[in-house]
Amino acid sequence: MSHQPFEAWLLMRDELTPDESGRLRAHLDECGPCAALAGALEEVEAEFRTAESLRPAPGFTARWRARMEGASERRAVRQAWSALGLMAGMAVSLLALLVAGVLGSPADWAAGGLRTLAGWIADARLVWGLAGAFVGSLPEPISIASGMALALGLMAATVGLAGAWFITMHRFALPVHRGGVR
Amino acid sequence: MRVTFGQSEAEWVARARAGDGEAFARLVETFQVPVYNLCSRMLGDAGEAEDAAQETFLRAFRNLKRYDPQRPFPTWLLSIASHYCIDMIRRRRFLPAPGEDVPREQEPADSGTGPEEALAIRERSDRISKLTRGLGPQERAAITLHYWYDLSYEEIAEVLSTSVGAVKSRMHRARRTLAERWREGEPQPALVRGRHNEPSAV
Fold first, then answer.
1. B115-202: what CATH class?
2. Which residues of chain B does A45 touch, with a Cβ-Cβ cutoff of 8 Å?
3. Mean pLDDT per segment of 10 residues, for chain B of length 202 residues?
């Protein structure tokens, strides 16, 4: 006795036409293995369909919040360390290039270094001269105030940049409860 | 259990997508049971199910911008959970984890149930877990989504990112395995595996 297509109909659970349903019923009356399969399937499906939904232990949302905060902290720390690692890597690479250059041809390096240094000094003198000429061209009371304002502005900008860098690193690298990013 | 998705949930999703963490926390509160139940049915272990459900919501939160509002939100969540659980089951092959052979204590379905009822629920849960243990991860996902969430083959295909034909094939295989295991657990003789595996046994 062939079990097909009855076995496939049983396992697929597709909609059957009235004719197919009749043929299946007739086959199940005669075929023990297919009748056993049909019975087992019905029992399994009843077991599944009547099973209760399993629930998590109370406080699931609170645990999720804690997990999310922990994940955010770890991600922020990872980002901060990555940035620091990248900067350190670049510094080491530059240092290595410098050392390689020095070891390769010390005389050329020394000459080049001196030329660069001389260039920087010339640039600084030029800037200084231009600034002096600009301040000197202003009327007397304004030129003193401008000089002081320029010096104070430069100092404030330097301090501000250093502070911003420190705050950024602090917020990214430290956990939330210690003032880090949320 | 058909997971419903009302107007208020849609509003929370929109708010969460706009960056409102509290709105997403409400979604976690609302969908924790369907997500946890799926993870638990697939993994068969309470601890792993908790971890998988938490990870599902974490991934959903991180990827909210990628969520397509035209798609039902619960289906999207179940899709994330299914894929995560499938990966977990596959990874178990390479890990000496406690796994399914030593299931941890399964929690009762409702904290308000009495001890006898809780015991009955636990026994049934263990029975189902043993029954589905012989299924592959994809088959287990398809069976769980079909019987517990009333999803059609088309919906299951969408959740599992596969074709309807592949889902039908998995359901076919899974039902055969389940029926055989069910019969093996009973006192009467089990189905003869060879006969039913043959396309037209005589």
1. mainly alpha
2. 147
3. 73 90 93 95 92 96 91 94 95 63 46 72 81 89 93 94 94 92 64 39 32
- Which residues of B fall within a CB distance of 8 Å from A47? 124, 127-128, 131
Q: Which of B38, B45, B54, B192 to mutate to test the interface with A (most CBs of A within 10 A)?
A: B54
List the single best residue of B3, B26, B36, B129 to mutate versus A (max A Cβ within 10 A): B36
Q: Which letter, b or e, does each residue of A78-114 get, where b requires 16 or more Cβ atoms within 10 Å of its Cβ?
A: eebeeeeeeeeeeeeeeeeeeeeeeeeeeeeeeeeee
Shortest CA distance to A172 belongs to which of A61, A64, A43, A77?
A77
Distance from A181 to chain B by nearest Cα, in Å?
15
Domain boundaries, chain B: 1-94, 115-202
Tell which CATH classification among 1.10.10.200, 1.10.1740.10, 3.90.79.10, 3.30.70.250 matches the domain B1-94.
1.10.1740.10
Rg (alpha carbons) of chain A, rounded to whole number: 40
CA distance B168 to A104: 70
The reply to whether residue A2 touches residue B58, judged by beta carbons under 8 angstroms, is no
- Angle, CA B104 vertex, CA B113 and CA A70 arms, to 5°: 95
Residue of A11, A44, A53, A54 to mutate when probing chain B, most B C-beta within 10 A: A54
Calpha distance B142→B132 (Å, rounded): 11
* Selection from B201, B196, B202, B132 nearest residue B170 by Cα: B132
For residue A1, the chain B residue with the least C-alpha distance is B202
CA–CA dist A56, B108 (Å, integer): 9
Nearest CA in chain A to B129: A48
Chain centroid to Cα A64, Å, comes to 19
- pTM for this structure? 0.68
Closest Cα of chain B to A166: distance in Å? 27
